[in-house]
Amino acid sequence: IQKKCIGAESCQDDLWGKLVCTNFKVSFISHNSLPRQRFQCTHRLLGEHDIPLACVEQVVTVNDVKGKQKILGSNQKLKFNPTELILYCKDFRIIRFRFDEAGPESAKKVCLAIAHYSHPADPQLLFGFEYVGKRYHGSVNGVDPGGGMQTPLFDCSSDWDREIKRTGASEWRVCTINQGYFISPSLPEFFVVPVSLADQDLKQYACFFYSQRIPLWCWNHSSGSALVRMSNISDPQQQRKVEQRISSAITKSHPLRSDVFKSDLDKTLPNIQDIQAALLKLRQICVIDPFEESEEKWLSSLEMINDLLYSVWVCTENEDRDLSCVISCLVQLMCDPHCRSLHGFQGLIQKEWVMAGHRFLDRCNHLKKNDKEESPVFLLFLDCAWQLWNQYPAAFEFTDVYLTVLGDSMWVPIFSTFLFNCPRQRAENSRDFASSKSIHLGQDQALRFPPVWDWSQQFSLKDQTLFNNPLYVGKIATCVQNGTVKTFTHRRSKKNYSSTLRGLPSAFRNGSIGPNDTLARRNSLVLRLRSDLSQVREQQETPSERFIRDFFSRPVDLQGLLLPQLLPSHLSVWKLYFLRWVPEAQIPQGGPITTFHKLSVLTDEIEMLQNQLKQYKGAGGTPNNLHVEPSKMYFKSSSTPHQPPAPPEYLSSSFPFSPVGNLCRPGILGTPLSKFLNGAKIWLSTETLANETF
Length: 694
Fold this sequence. Notes:
This protein is α+β, with helices and mostly antiparallel strands. It has helices spanning about 105-115, 125-135, 155-165, 200-205, 235-250, 270-290, 295-310, 325-335, 340-355, 360-365, 375-390, 400-410, 415-420, 425-435, 460-465, 525-540, 545-555, 575-580, 590-620, 670-675, 685-690; strands spanning about 1-5, 15-20, 25-30, 50, 55-65, 70, 85-90, 95-100, 170-175, 190-195, 215-220, 225-230, 475-480, 485-490, 510, 510-515. Mean pLDDT is about 80; it is low at about 140-150, about 290-295, about 310-315, about 475-535 and about 680-694.
C-alpha cells in the first residue's frame, strides 16, 4: 500500500492505494478519491492518476530517515530502502508518493521498475510498437489510422496535389525522386518543387546541401509568392552556382517573375540548447523553485524568457529541421485562414514537422540517451501559436484546450506523429519490428501507427467538442434573414475580438490605444517612452514599419492577415499549459472557462434554432420528425426557455485538468508568483522599454 501526497507535506487528504508500473505508464490505483478531482472529461488511455512513462523526466528516491536521495536511471542499483518517490514530469507536474505502509522490498522494486521502463534502450521498446503490434494481431487489415479522418498525412502524392490546387501554385509540381528515400534520408518520399526544375537537376544539386535536403516548397500566397524552406549549401565552391539556379527556378514560378528574398539569420539564431534552457528556467519559475529569490531576480528571469520567445519569430537554420519548422508554420498561420481551422492546422503540422523530418524522437528525448539533443522546439511553436490565438481568438476554429492537449500528446508514445525523427526512420523501425514479431503486414509496407489526429484514440466524441471554439468566425457562416437560412463570406469585422476571450486588456485595440482609454499607472512609463521616440520613428519609418502601423490602425479581418503584437510586454504566460498544476493558480468557478461556458451555451442555442428552422422549411412547414444534428459545443443550452444552465460545480480555471495531487513544493503565498497570479503588472527594465519597437 502506497500513499499519494496531495501537498508538500503529508496530510489527511492524501490518497491511499497501489502504485503500479507497466511498459506504458505509472498508475496509481486509489482506494479513495476526492470529489473535486472528478471531471467530466475522461482520457481513454490514461486514468486520473496515470503518468505515461515518456512524460517522466526524473525518478528521485528518498530515504528521509537516513537523509539520502538518488536520481535513478536505467539498470541502476538502489542501495537504500526508499521511503519516498518523487516523479518530475515533462508537463510540469511533480508527483510524490510515500511508502510508510509498504514493505521495503516492494517499494524498491516499483522504483527500479519505473526507472527502467522510463529509459527504453531502443525505439522499438517504446510502447507504441507493442500497442500497434497487438492491434495487427487482432485484425486482418491492420490499424485504420483514424478512419474517416479529414487531416491529410502528406505521405502520398495526392495529398500534395490537393495542396497545390488549394493554394493555386500552378507553377509547382510533386516530385518523386526520393521514393525509397533514395536521395535524402530525412526528407519525405514526396514533396513539391518548381516546374522548371528537372528531376535530373535536383539529383545533381542534392549532394551540395546539408543532409541532401534540397529546397522544399511550403505554401503559396494568392499573389503567387511562394514560401520555400531549405538547408544551407555545404560546398562553398558550388554555393553561388546552385543558389542562382534554385533562385531562377523559384522566380519563374511567380506570375510577375519577382526576385527571391532570402532570409539567412544563422548568426542570430538561438540554438536548441538556448530553447531548452529557457524552458528549464520557466519550469523553475512556475513549479520547482522554493521562491526565496528576490522579486527583481524573478521578474528579470521571466523577462529573459519573454525576450527569447520574441526573438525566434524570424529565423532560419543550417539543417532545416528545427526552427525552420516553427517559422514556416507561423507564416502560414498568420497569412492563411485555412491553417487556422482545425484540420488545416493539423495538416500544417503534418506537412511542416512530421513529413519534413523534425527530430521528435531526439527533441522529446524519448530514449533518455542524449540530453544535449533534447529541446522543446515543438512546444515553442505551440506557445507561439497560442500567443497569436490569445490576441485573435475568433480567428481560430480550435480552443486553447486543444493546443494544451496537443502538447500533452507528445508524451503518449503510440502516435506516429511524435515517435520518430523522420518518415524513413518510422518505416525502417516498423518493418524490423514486424519481422521480429512475425507480424504479417499484407499490402502495408510498414506498421501503420495511428497519427495523433485520430483523436478517438484518446477522447470520446463528446470530449472532443472541447476543441471547438464558440467564437470562431469561419470563412463560410450561416445566418437567418427574413426566415431564410443563408450563407455569407466574412470579409471584415467591425468588432474587435482580440480581448474577448483570454486576450489583452480591453484598453488595447490591435496595438493602439484609443483617445478615451486609460492605462494603469505602471504602464505610464511605456507611453512616455513611446511618445519620446515617436518623432524619431516618424523620420526613420521604413516601408515595413509603415505597413505594420497601417495594419494596426484599421479593423482586423479575421479571414485575412493576422499580425501578432510582438512587444515583450504584449506576451502572456500560457497559464492553461504552464500553470494548470499550481493549486494557487486555480480559480474555482472562475477564470476564462466561465466565459467559454456562456459562449458555448449561446452558440449551441443559435445552432439548434438554425437547424430546426432549416429542417422546418425543408419539410414544407411541418415540424414533425425533425432530425436534430449533434451539437458542436461541449456545454449545451437548456431545454427550458429563459433559464440558461448554471456553470457546473466542477469548473475551475484549470479545467479540464486537475492540479490536486500533481504538485509538491512549498506554498507560494507572498512570493513574486503569487503577486503575478493576483494581477500585479510585470516591471520591465527601462532599457527594455526604451528599445521596444514593432
